Amino acid sequence: MTGHGGPPLSVSALAASWSTSEQVVRRLLNDGALRGVKIGRSWRVFPVDAEAYIESRTNGRQRDGR
């Protein structure tokens, strides 16, 4: 899988890396705010899509604080 920034992340893995609950991640996916792929009953999120969501929520500051 090229171009996706790595293997897809599970809801639990993404929630852990964001220090939030699985419920929050699932709500973002169900609302369409976070792009993901549903495989059966499970969601998967590619790292580039998780990064795009974070970038869309950033208030304009660069990552290094400048």
Structure description:
- The chain contains three helices and three strands; from the N terminus they run βααββα.
- It is globular and about 35 Å long.
- It is 44% helix and 14% strand.
- The relative contact order is 0.20.
- Helix 1 (11-18) crosses helix 2 (22-31).
- With 66 residues, it is of the alpha+beta class.
- The longest helix has 11 residues, at 47-57.
- It has helices at 11-18, 22-31, 47-57, and strands spanning 9-10, 37-39, 42-45.
- It has a three-stranded antiparallel sheet.
- The mean pLDDT is 90.
- A hairpin with a 2-residue loop joins strand 2 (37-39) and strand 3 (42-45).
- The chain has one domain.
